[in-house]
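Hi team,

Filling in the usual template for the complex we talked about on Friday. All components are listed, including any nucleic acid strands or ligand strings, so the model treats them as one assembly.

SUBMITTER: L.P.
PURPOSE: interface mapping
COMPONENTS: two
RESIDUES: 635
SEQUENCES:
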Amino acid sequence: MSVFEIFGAAVALAGAVIFAIGLIRLILATQHRPYQTELAPTKGSPAQGVLYAFTLGMAPWAKESARRHWVAYIRGIIVHVSIFAAAAFLIASPWLAQMPSPLRISLVALFTIGAVLGLAGFGIRLSDPTMRLLSTPDDYFSLALVTLFLASGAASAARIEFLPAFWAISGITMAYTPFGKMKHFLYFFYERVFIGLFFGRRGVLVWRHE
Amino acid sequence: MNSTAEIEQSKLTTAREMLGNLVDRRVLTALDACVRCGICTESCHYYQSNPRTEHTPYYRAEMLRRLYRRFFDPIGRVFPQWVGAKEATDEMLSKLAEMAFSSCTLCQRCTFACPFGVETAEIMRIMRAIATATGNAPEMLVELANLAIDKGENAELFRDIYLDQVKELEKEVQDCLGSSKARIPVGEKGARMLYVPLAGAHTIVPQAILFNAAKESWTLGLFESSNYAVFLADGAKSKRIAERVTKEAEQLKAEELIITECGHGYTTMRWEAPKWFGGHLPFRVRSILEVLDEYVREGRLHLDSSRNIEPTTYHDSCNLGRKGGIFEEPRRVIRAAASDYRELTPNRLDSYCCGAGSGLVAVPEWADIRMQAGKLKAEQIQRTGASLVITSCDNCRQQIGDLSEHYGLNVETSSVSELAVKALT
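RESULT (copied from the run log):
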């Protein structure tokens, strides 16, 4: 292993450890908060509500805001699919040399598109007066990390020499995730479960109205 | 006497303590999930009617988030500027209070627009609770809540007057049904249903006519369903106001508690009250809308839709619909009672608030705000071409009546019960 590879791997491992500790702390802190169980007799099904929240509740035909902001909706989906794919690629990256060429080319394309769309996030955030007003340094830093993560993923999928850089950037990204805005990746699941339980129980989330 | 500085300090301490205590798992999630993407922006009727930054849901919620991060977020405590955390000041608390009470009706429409489902209304509720605890809540709402508690504690003082008034109303019921046997029983033990009205004959007479027509075993409650402490997010007072009704139902051994056409009154008793009283209530809680729907479906009420031929539409109350799951019940009754029914667009889960919810209608100095916030609803109504707007919440009804006058809509408003009475055969 070269010095760069050792450095990159060390940063990635350290980042993974910080990520794991930070994530556990975040989950414990959240679970430590009280949760008020609904006690009224149900009108609908909480379980079906959760299912709805993770399926139809996110579909563009059921979500007015997705139809209205369809560009942002598609951008969001592509960026997040790229991130999850890049996370899987990170785990598999020690065996990059053995990866079939068509797969690597596909990953390059996906990560490049993700990185470009990540970069576009700066423009979107800066061009909207309300978003600009409410954005914090944390927002821009998180966006920059994710964009770099995807860009370095694309570069290393294309050329194995970039792998140490990808590992190092991944380590920094992982280490920062539980502390900044990127912790929303955890709260997304919490929030969808909560609204599914709450509104499902009340019979609000019905699959089809009369 | 405390100095101004001491009072301010005490308010800030209270705010911090309340923020620490009231942020449960759901609220914490709502605070931490938002990525400030702005997709919720147009979901808000305030923004649609007056597109300003302060009217976006994420701006409002962000104001509390910044305070929360300063106190409780590890990064916010050490590097406040990095995450936009802000130090609490008395001025900030006043601004938060005004925003929580006059710029958000807690309608929860933005929750369904958000890709995450962030519950901004829950954040605003915390803001209301802090405002109430620090003396920044609207005086009118505080007085109305206190009056309701006083009424519960001194029921005997008004009982006889109330009974006399109801006797008068009973004559109207008898005239309408052409039967001297029709009654408005009050506080009658053994009745199957305890019906909880609002202050006003329009929530007693039509329902009494329908109960009598359906040959229901029922009795009228002494107290009204409204609970202004809920708007203040004051849990202790909310419970005391609700307790007046739950005690009455228990004393009368009623099997069911039927809430009149009142949005927050229904949500409070049906969904919130069991939490305050530690579990299931010893009676079933339903809305009068569910009862009327049942009567129509079971053939206990016979309605003739040809008696209401004017173009009619229905406004979904946020509390009954989006927060209570009552979408189809009123529609089935209206379709049975009116021949030209038209839907507002959008409706049901996507329905816009009328602009007066969560106590806004009760504060006279906010009349201009609610007229502006209701602009979208006025336009929606106009597009249907309806001349009659049915709504099953008294707040919405007053607001739509005011909107009609303000925007020259020339529409009448009515409740589902009143419409059903007109169609009764």
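MY TAKE: The mean pLDDT of chain B is 96. The domain at 141-295 of chain B is CATH 3.40.50 (Rossmann fold).

Thanks, L.
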